[in-house]
Amino acid sequence: MLKQARKFTDNSHLSDSLKITISSVIPFLILLPYKEFTLAFTIAMGALLTSPVDIPSSFKDKIVGLLTGAIAIPFITFLLSITLGHWTFYPIFIGIIFSLSMIAVYGHRANMLSFTGLLAVCLAFAHNYDEEGILTHCLMLLLGGLLYTLVSVIFQLIRPRRYAILQTSDCLELTSKYLKYRAELWSKNANTQKIVEKQLNIQIKLNEIHQNLREYLIKNKANTGNSANNRKLLVAFSELVEIQEMAVSTNFDHQRLHELFKGHEDIIQCYQQLAFQFSETIYNIGTTLNMGDKYRTPSNLTKALEELKSKLKDFEQTTNAPTRIEAVLQFSNVIHYAESQIEKIKGLERVLLDKVFDANIEEQFKDLEKFLTPQHYRWSTLKENFNFSSIIFRHAVRLTITILIGFLIGQIFNLLNGYWILLTIVVIMRPGYGLTKQRSFERVIGTVIGGLIAFALLYFIKEVNYLAYLTVFTMIMGYWFSHTDYKVGVTFITIYVVLIFGILTPNFMDLLVYRIIDTFLGAILAFGANYLLWPSWEFLNVNKHLSNSIKANRDYIKEISIYYNEKGAVTLPYKLARKYAFIEVGNLMASFQRMIQEPKSKQKYRAELYELAVLNHTLLSSAASIGTYIQSRKTTEASKAFNSVMDYIINNLNTTSIILEELESKVPSVAAKEEFQISYLYLKEIRETELKQSLSNDLDIQEKMEESVLVIEQLMWMVKLSDKILKIAQKINFKSQINKQIQTKKVLSL
């Protein structure tokens, strides 16, 4: 119980919340004895506005980002305050909002800096100051930003590696879940579709964590060579990626294996228990790493594997079924997978027990920088996005117009604290409709619930000290939960905002009513703008993600074919192609999830697109299965038939991506089709011949039989998958053409 509570509280979100709260409370503790509440509040606001820029990165990037945010906040506030009421105000106001929205094209840190700047725009209208007052106000905002930077640096120095440990622990937990779902696939009546969907959802989260860890560990490379802890985490991360990719890449025909082992289900059940133990062991490693406890192995994986091998050997010796050879060869692949995973899991255990000190680690990971997504702050990047085909550009225009309308409503109707309308718009408005809709609902609900709770607290508690303690507590909770559960976060933030005003002003009830009204108005404006002003419907983007995923699979399959032909060490292009194939599959599923949050009228080709996403994931698994096999086994020379079939699969994927991009597709020549048919039949005959032969005790002959059967099995499956992917793409294209013709006729009839 205590461990669960500690795991729940000791995370990066709580740490971020504490940094904000400490930076906000310090000014009050120092200045309240001097009755300088306004200055304390302004410094706290500067700290609060700077905090979004504080994202995990190298120490240098963190400092540069925080100082940029700390300076930008008072600059924006000063510029808007001195021009308010002058004819230059509106051009400057519009220009600042649009510019801040557009810098999001430069990546996550720029996006958070944009968010910070937009919040500063909203809060610039919270008070009116004269020239001397605005200078003091801006200096206090700058001081608050610098104070937050100092607090953040102190947190970093106290626990410099905590973020990496937490991310690695989360990665272990998600990988454990992925392996658990793989184990569930071995149940006889498993709901394969539902389990695969869960796996794809985990893949999305894993892609994000992998990218975070890559950036953090590689950008802190200076520490990696000298710090045993960083070296340990780098090795652990490398092992984890390989475990997850091996799991994705090893594809089993569960239904066929159940048929082959009918009457001997204990073998499959024995393996399923071992697969669950993989998951349990990795979860236990993650918990131990997070909590800093002494590691205890939950189960003996090697013993369980030997028991499984013994059962398979008994089956081989005592069974005379005609499918015996196929069953043994198919299950040999399962055994090879289990052996590889156990080896990797033991590697993770060694890392945890501090037994990994590879002096050549720098050489081992010398190419890691190439796995980072490069981020260039070039003018050309911004210029390329200055058109309505860019999602960021459309969002920038939409957000600028919506904030302008919200500002005018506040001015025309002279609303009390009308800047809350602008804050609501900035906080909940996103480029996509689905997330904006969800956030609009959660913010309104959270504000109402939080307002009612705050009112009850102010009604029953009259002691100011108790209210102050509650304010600090709800502030911590609000910023903590805003990362994980937005509705709960908004509830607590509303409570602490109303409590502050309740302590300071007698008319807090009016403030509560106006906050709810302003939040409601802001949510309606944001929701309406996302629906009416150049909306970014996800069905318009999902084809692009699908095409990118298919291209990434195609490039990966090309690299597998090259590697099978040339042998030798695994090349960097092969590793990069594999990385992007996995990332694009995750991006595709994330795009599909966003699409299903949108109105049903905008969910075009939903069934077909989902089927394509699943088929593409399955194709990646099959391709990676061949890649993993040829890396871990000595293989024979690639035949002409192998290359011909691989070329056919690659051509199918090429044609599919061309169709999805609505370009003119090139039809394969008759000669190429004939060559594929001959090669396909030739490989099929080899497979059938091998299965009819008896098992040999010669290890070399056995390995060649495994290779010919298992590789050809995957090739045949990949051919079917690529054919099906192409047919569904053609179906979508046909429906699209019909819809266009119908729309054209409607326009002409008008």
TrEMBL record:
Keyword Oxidoreductase: no
UniProt subcellular location: Cell membrane
Keywords: Cell membrane, Membrane, Transmembrane, Transmembrane helix
GO cellular component labels: plasma membrane
The Integral membrane bound transporter domain, residue ranges: 406-527
Record's bilayer topology term: Multi-pass membrane protein
InterPro entries: Memb_transporter_dom (IPR049453), YccS_N (IPR032692)
Domain Integral membrane protein YccS N-terminal as annotated: residue spans: 83-334
Domain of life: Bacteria
Record flagged with keyword Transcription regulation: no
Membrane-spanning segments: 20-51, 63-82, 88-105, 134-158, 443-460, 466-481, 488-506, 512-534
Family recorded in the similarity comment: Belongs to the YccS/YhfK family.
Alphabetical list of PANTHER family matching this protein: MULTIDRUG RESISTANCE PROTEIN MDTO, P-HYDROXYBENZOIC ACID EFFLUX PUMP SUBUNIT-RELATED
The protein, known as: TIGR01666 family membrane protein
Natural source organism: Myroides guanonis
